[in-house]
Design goal:
The chain contains eleven helices and 17 strands. By secondary structure, the protein is an alpha+beta fold.
Amino acid sequence: MAVRVVVEWTRLTLRLALAEGSESKLRLRSVYCQPIAAPEEAMPTLKALLKTAKITTADVIGVVSREQVITRVVKFPTLDPAELAKMVELYAKAQLPYAREQTIMDFHVLSRKEGSSTVAIVACQREVIDRTVGVLKGAGLTVRMLTLSPWGVLGWYRQAIKPQSVQEPCLVINVDDGRTDLVLIGSGRILSTRSIGQGAQDWAAGSETTELLFQEVERSRASIRKESPDFEVRSVALTGLAGSSAWSEPLAQRLRLAVIPVESRQGFKGALIPTAPAISPVVAAGIGVSDLRGLLNVSPEDMRTQVRHRQQVSELVVVGLLLLGVLAIGAGLLGFRATRQHQFALQLEQVLGEVQPTAKDIQEKKRAGQFVASILDERKALGQVLVAVFQATPPPVTLEGLAFERARSEVVVRGTAPSTQEVLNYVGQLEHLNGVSNVQLRYSTSRITPAGERTDFELVLQQDKKPAKASES
């Protein structure tokens, strides 16, 4: 059973959400939360929460707050996904206020019609992403993806809101302790997003909370009319901290729209969600149960490459195990067949002995059977070595090629690593593999790439040689 870990923090609290199940059907198990007084407290607080949750190492999805990014809604004259991606990239280089090399960017399609695509381009400064990644890695976690808080609201909406209970497009207002997300959702997708760095903790002491919420909703509606005139808010769903439902009726009167209060825990029956400190579990829990393919990805390119590499290694391990199973079954069948042939040869030898024929044909069959058995043993040993190599390869090391030289019983491994020391560590791991008698570093060369320094290497793995059986004369 897969376990997904989601980490989110605001300026007041850090929260950890755990979901379990298959990737296509995840269920929220629990949410942990601790207050933080300053950004530098995020890492030690996260370590403490991981210890409380009894998580030693895991792939994690980090959440970046919506107010830390900028968005641009742009219309492009194409429906082709490949062309659209190129146009978005050209737009980003020319129009975004940050230098492209210092920007992490992704986009999502709002609508397609009449040969054109309207997209929302999301951009974030690299230093913001690096700070988030630094906290997660410093806590001992492997970062699988970074996404934005509105996509957590969307995941919660799909779990908690019944389609017939609201009119879409529906503006979801998620009031958290130190942040408020306003997300317009229609037909199961995000149409517009806004976020403000104020939450219930900022408004609790004020007497004009309803008026403040009304003004923010009006700003969202004005932005939607300007950027996406085809969309209009038809209802509002108000959720977040306990007590926010008290604002629904006066807000509905001011907006002249239906405002539906929704419990933030709705849709997560059985999950353990804390009541203190007071938080909204909407974002972390929503991402915990979402399909990763539908999330906006603001991970750096080098991180995306590492994730793809880990997935490829996992797939290769599975394929290697399947291949080993097939070889084992084939060896068993051929061994059974060889046994039957050997028995038949003995009977034939007895009959031929009675009529004094030569035993040359029988001996040739025996040699052929021994030859086949030796080839199967070699293939089986090779399959075991390959599976062991894939399993021993750590995430920083990327394999680029494997070759087998049968005459010398050698496996040649080529790839790249972040440093020469990583290569030497990798050699040390391979030397302890079963079936490998020796590992030689043929060469290693360092080079500079856009993602940093990389070291190319080539290793030669010498397989254990079993003594060959003496052939019968």
